[in-house]
What we know:
By secondary structure, this protein is mostly helical. The protein contains 4 helices and no strands. It has helices at residues 4-9, 17-26, 36-47, 81-85. It is elongated. Mean pLDDT is 75; it is low at 70-86.
Amino acid sequence: MNTPLIFQQISGQYQNAEEMVKARDAACPMGRMGTAWNIAKAALFLASDDAEYITGVQLSGRRRPDVPHRKLRESATVKSRSQYLS
């Protein structure tokens, strides 16, 4: 999501803010990051009578699986599924 918080938290991982936005836009299925307004409009629709037949929905801004993450934190460790199940 394109919010002021991402500029504070992760912009330092990129050369500049424009590079960050370009990389994050490329990783999104829609070709751009969503905004708070996108979420608000979806919530309004789901709360409206027009959504009366919708019983469940998942709003996802997940990354496209074919676009690699620019940088991972050095300290991050990835556990295998078996480690979580044991």
